[in-house]
Amino acid sequence: MDRCNAKQKKEDLVRRLKDLDSLLIAFSGGVDSTFLLAVAHQILGKRVLAATASSAAYPAREQEDAIEFVKKQGIRHVLFESDEINIPEYSANNPERCYYCKKRLCQELHRIAREKGMKNIAFAANLDDLDDYRPGIKAAEEMGIIEPLIDARLTKEEIRFLSKEMDLPTWDKPAMACLASRIPYGEPITEEKLKMVEEAEIFLSANDFKQFRVRHHGPVARIELEVQDMGRMIEPQMRKMIAGKLREIGFIHISLDLEGYVSGSMNRVLE
Question: Quick one: pLDDT band at residue 208, thresholds 50, 70, 90?
């Protein structure tokens, strides 16, 4: 990575933000949205508002992180309920699931923006997101949502580097996606399945695993883990403890994917 180039891209981002009258940012508490919010707050101050969705599809610990960050930074913040689970096209879990979810989310953000007098709404998608199947980006663009990080050509690696320079706590935070991404396309999304995945991932996190996914394949939990962590997971005591906990959660069989953690692996069926 070219650090000078990354800093130049940040300067471009700053210039773009300075042109805005006010900005509502969809804030998940992840790496990208925390970076965008922090930079925007430095530039726009009280003219920035963070909005965080609360639903069964988003891990509770992520919402807690988001709330903690805005409190420490003194950033204006609103929480709102997201009811995507009640959207038939979403719960049916077809390949366009994220499109319908993002569409509903954008409608809520527009409502909040009107109520709070915000002139612009932004998502924190980055340039790398364009390399994967992201129907949610299409929905956001259709709804007039701006994407400052993409416009500034910032990649995930560059955002992590710049976040570290800004001393943001999320600079090395593991990548996170909504819990529905753990369920294969075509398998209906239910609150029960989402809860099973969340509980399993909380348990792995509590045992110091950093980057992973627990994929829900009916009675089977398929764990994607970074290759360097596989040895520790299959140690007799750890293996027994994890298998026991995931069975307690409701899975019958527990498997470890030999390929390891792969972002967006569920999209392979679309190829």
Answer: very high
Task: Determine the Cα–Cα distance for residues 53 and 58; give it in Å rounded to an integer.
Answer: 8
Amino acid at 13: L
Who's near 147: CB < 8 A, 6+ residues apart?
A: 122, 123, 124, 125, 137, 140, 141
What is the fold, at CATH topology level, of the domain defined by 3-165?
Rossmann fold (3.40.50)
- pLDDT, position 135: 87
Average pLDDT over residues 28-42: 97
Domain with residues 179-270, CATH architecture: 2-Layer Sandwich (3.30)
User: Do 178 and 58 meet the contact criterion of CB atoms below 8 Å apart?
Assistant: yes
CB of 234 closer than 8 Å to CB of 225: no
Q: How far apart are alpha carbons 92 and 107 in whole angstroms?
A: 21
> What global pTM score does this model have?
0.90
Q: Which residue has the higher pLDDT, 1 or 227?
A: 227
Provide the token pair at 56.
Answer: 């069964």
